[in-house]
Amino acid sequence: MKTCLDCLPCFVRQILDAGRLISEDPAVHEEILRESLQDLANENWNNTPPVIAQRLHKKLKTKTGINDLYRDQKKAHNELALHLLPKLRADVSTSDDPLTSAAHFAIAGNIIDLGAKNGLSENEVLSAVEHASEEPLEGDLDAFRTAVENAESILYLGDNAGEIVFDRLLIEQLGPERVTLAVRGAPILNDALEEDARLAGLHDLVPIIGNGNDVPGTDLEQCNDKFRALFNSADLVISKGQGNFETLNENPRQIFFLFKVKCPMVANASGQPLGTHVLMEKAKQ
Amino acid sequence: MKTCLDCLPCFVRQILDAGRLISEDPAVHEEILRESLQDLANENWNNTPPVIAQRLHKKLKTKTGINDLYRDQKKAHNELALHLLPKLRADVSTSDDPLTSAAHFAIAGNIIDLGAKNGLSENEVLSAVEHASEEPLEGDLDAFRTAVENAESILYLGDNAGEIVFDRLLIEQLGPERVTLAVRGAPILNDALEEDARLAGLHDLVPIIGNGNDVPGTDLEQCNDKFRALFNSADLVISKGQGNFETLNENPRQIFFLFKVKCPMVANASGQPLGTHVLMEKAKQ
Questions:
Q1: In whole angstroms, what is the distance from residue B225 CA to residue B230 CA?
Q2: Helix axes B98-108, B141-150, angle to 10 degrees
Q3: CB contact under 8 A, B16 and A34
Q4: If exposure means fewest CB atoms within 10 Å of the residue's CB, which of A22, A78, B204, B210 is most exposed?
């Protein structure tokens, strides 16, 4: 999806949040904000929102020399999620429908998104996970089940740190022997990198590949050849999170999108209300 | 209060809302937004938020030749409020404490603020009024009562159209013979003008003066001499709404601010949580 004009206020907020992580000096925040407003005024708004976010953050990285601004928050979210994992795995294994149960937790974990919202509290994460199975799961669950049963190869597109631990539950149910996990190729916001997937123990289960870039989504033009080959050849692509949806929702291949609707623009593009847990099939075009 | 960096995303949203009222053409919205981002990048952020809003809207007025963009919405809000007035007046007159009851309604009416939020529905207004007296009124009610009892002259600073009808209930309780009502001197957002105050029948009760400018607040430097003289000489100044608070909260004179807290920055400056109905005395400094 293209960037909507309504995304502009959100970019300004996101960059202000990043500025406050970089420094405690209001003069630094102001300088970053003034430059970002200028850049946004001149930006090509036909880009997807994640590509514009990438550009804004890239400039911050160059300016400050800080490459992984969200490292501490990612670490905290990974640890919180790992702490919850045994209980959730037990819940999945005793569920009447472990695949659905695991999908519920994976989507609930998508709340851990520091691009969509600043100041996410531990309690918000705990509450999202606790109430995960009570949330209605909007979408194409039967089609998903059938696609999973029939796929010999599955490419799973990860989204955020912390959330990647919950993805593990779903990957365990999918049958790890068929799955390859893709993560971002370089730090951006709190998006999961290979180190986050390894921390979740996923390297013992599945091959992990970095997609070669730092878009907080999946911008195929910027992805490396290995990723693109897998994306084109996999029987099934499972895409987690808003950023992957925003960059792939117009792609011609069949994809199952799993995410929590966290902004009005994605609500509009997906046809699902704000807050909804979505499991959506986009059929091959 | 100075503009906070957190006000910047909100300005961008406000201008996008205005652009959508001006035209249905996305190219026009984009042009307005690009120019406003540029202007905001170069703005003096030591100004109060209402003064920056004034400048952004002034540029829109010049560009489009549309002077009163919110005319239709103001008319609709005035009519809705006038429809509610007889019932609310009866509630006030049978109340054990008519002054507090009228203050409640006047503050509830402050929800009609199209600067703080776009797309306000009739139901939101009705619900705010219906539940007005259940809302806790944070502040200095006893000091307010005493100040009202002792004042020979009261300057009442109006805020928005529609809301001005609810202000009438409070002005009736204050004793109209002592009150002068000030409104904006020219159209800005949905702020009340003399025509709105007349529609509420206030011209039969009190003298009405325009303050001589189109700041969505009270920027004394831009106010006319008549307004400033009244502001300085009145025994009591009652200030309605966030915009008046944002422009006068650092003024040295005693003022009673009545408003609903509608943004985190005003929550911070007032020390009251988002959503609170505030009746706050600022003592003479």
A1: 9
A2: 110
A3: no
A4: B204
Q: Supply A224's token pair.
A: 């490396």
Find the helix packing angle between B98-108 and B71-93, rounded to 10°. Answer: 160
Under an 8 A CB cutoff, do A37 and B5 touch? Answer: no
> For the residues B244-249, what does the mean pLDDT come to?
98
Distance to chain A for B149, nearest Cα, Å: 45
* Fold for the domain defined by B71-282: Rossmann fold (3.40.50)
Q: What is the pLDDT of residue B245?
A: 98
Cβ contact, residue pair B9, A5, below 8 Å? no
Say whether residue B30 is in contact with chain A using an 8 A CB cutoff.
yes
State the complex-level ipTM: 0.91
Q: Tell whether A193 is within 8 A of chain B (Cβ).
A: no
How many beta-carbon pairs under 8 angstroms link A with B?
A: 52
A27 touches chain B (CB under 8 A): no
State chain A's maximal CA–CA distance in angstroms: 57
Lowest mean pLDDT among A118-132, A205-219, B246-260: A118-132
Give DSSP secondary structure letters for chain A.
Answer: -PPPTTHHHHHHHHHHHHHHHH-S-HHHHHHHHHHHHHHHHHS-TTS-HHHHHHHHHHHHHHHH--S-TTHHHHHHHHHHHHHHHHHHHHHHHTSSSHHHHHHHHHHHGGG--TTT-S---HHHHHHHHHTGGGS-EEE-HHHHHHHHHH-S-EEEE--BTTHHHHHHHHHHHH-GGGEEEEE-SS--TTB--HHHHHHTTGGGTS-EEE-SS--SS--GGGS-HHHHHHHHH-SEEEEESHHHHHHHTT-SS-EEEEEE--SHHHHHHHT--TT-EEEEEE---
pLDDT of A37 higher than 80: yes
Q: Which A residues in the span 97-126 are in contact with B, Cβ-Cβ below 8 Å? A: none
**β-pair partners for B260:** B277
Handedness of CA B147, B148, B149, B151 (dihedral sign): positive
Phi-psi region of A239 (alpha: psi -120 to 50; beta: other; left: phi over 0): beta
Q: What is the 3-state secondary structure (H, E, C) of chain B?
A: CCCCCCHHHHHHHHHHHHHHHHCCCHHHHHHHHHHHHHHHHHCCCCCCHHHHHHHHHHHHHHHHCCCCCCHHHHHHHHHHHHHHHHHHHHHHHCCCCHHHHHHHHHHHHHHCCCCCCCCCCHHHHHHHHHCHHHCCEEECHHHHHHHHHHCCCEEEECCECCHHHHHHHHHHHHCHHHEEEEECCCCCCCECCHHHHHHCCHHHCCCEEECCCCCCCCCHHHCCHHHHHHHHHCCEEEEECHHHHHHHCCCCCCEEEEEECCCHHHHHHHCCCCCCEEEEEECCC
pLDDT at B53: 98
pLDDT at A132: 83
- A207: amino acid identity, one letter: P
**CB distance A34–B41 less than 8 Å?**
yes
